[in-house]
Amino acid sequence: MLHHYTQPSSFRQRIPLTMMASWAWEDWQWMAYLLATILFATLLVRHFKRRRMVALINKLPGPEGLPLLGNSLQVTVDNAELFKLIIQFCQYGEVMKLWFGPDPLVILSSPRAAEAVLSSSRHIEKSNDYHYLHSWLGTGLLTSSGSKWHSRRKLLTPAFHFKILEDCLEVFDRQATLLVDRLRPRADGQPFDILSHIALCTLDIICEAAMGHVINAQNEEDSEYVKKIKKINYLMQRRMTVIWEQPSLLYWLLGLARQRDECLSVLHNFSKETITNRRKINQQNVDEKSG
């Protein structure tokens, strides 16, 4: 009797399964090699770009920094001390550099140097530091870049027409006169931080001229709104200069996120209330004209 030998089904499947496994492994190898090559090429390009950037930045004068940290520890001070540091840094020239860890910062200390940047409509990309302002100011003209910046610029340009500004001259004059009166006692020949005075004057002008809301910030610095403005400025500036406050998790663990949110609650509520009141006034004017 003849018996036909039949291979077990498991044996019949063993060869193709092994071949499939081999092919799959080879495919994964090629994919891994390809990804590794792309990653290596990307890192290489970034390395040479950064190398060129570092070489150019290091041509600028500036204080010596620590390895890895750069000048981060030097600027970890309060606002008053930071102002004194900036005055010292200006001795390096009208264009100088600082290093915040791996990130460079170029400081312009003369009108001529600043004009080259501020008058440009091409170089409008914002640094990563502007990200911290988004929770407060959103992504408008001050903090946006690219096409969004251009669109916001077009929307706001008509608002600064000379005819419109002429209607605000009385507000400008009154608030500027008050500013001069506040600065007169400081005119003793010694340097001081003028930013806080300018900020309060600007706040008075913007709120009254643009929104019709008189807040009298220059005379009432103890009002809740003015105090929150100062507090949020302090928090934002400190976060930009203190490297361990920049990670969101650490910022929350340190309790600074809660302080920021408290300030933003007051500021945003004020803005919403002002906009609502302004809309009511505009609607009343429309109704009176149509009636």
From TrEMBL:
<dbReference type="InterPro" id="IPR036396">
    <property type="entry name" value="Cyt_P450_sf"/>
</dbReference>
<dbReference type="InterPro" id="IPR050196">
    <property type="entry name" value="Cytochrome_P450_Monoox"/>
</dbReference>
<keyword id="KW-0349">Heme</keyword>
<dbReference type="GO" id="GO:0005789">
    <property type="term" value="C:endoplasmic reticulum membrane"/>
</dbReference>
<keyword id="KW-0256">Endoplasmic reticulum</keyword>
<dbReference type="GO" id="GO:0004497">
    <property type="term" value="F:monooxygenase activity"/>
</dbReference>
<dbReference type="InterPro" id="IPR001128">
    <property type="entry name" value="Cyt_P450"/>
</dbReference>
<keyword id="KW-0479">Metal-binding</keyword>
<feature type="transmembrane region" description="Helical">
    <location>
        <begin position="28"/>
        <end position="45"/>
    </location>
</feature>
<dbReference type="Pfam" id="PF00067">
    <property type="entry name" value="p450"/>
</dbReference>
<keyword id="KW-0560">Oxidoreductase</keyword>
<keyword id="KW-0503">Monooxygenase</keyword>
<keyword id="KW-1133">Transmembrane helix</keyword>
<dbReference type="GO" id="GO:0020037">
    <property type="term" value="F:heme binding"/>
</dbReference>
<comment type="similarity">
    <text>Belongs to the cytochrome P450 family.</text>
</comment>
<dbReference type="GO" id="GO:0016705">
    <property type="term" value="F:oxidoreductase activity, acting on paired donors, with incorporation or reduction of molecular oxygen"/>
</dbReference>
<protein>
    <submittedName>
        <fullName>Uncharacterized protein</fullName>
    </submittedName>
</protein>
<dbReference type="GO" id="GO:0005506">
    <property type="term" value="F:iron ion binding"/>
</dbReference>
<keyword id="KW-0812">Transmembrane</keyword>
<keyword id="KW-0408">Iron</keyword>
<keyword id="KW-0472">Membrane</keyword>
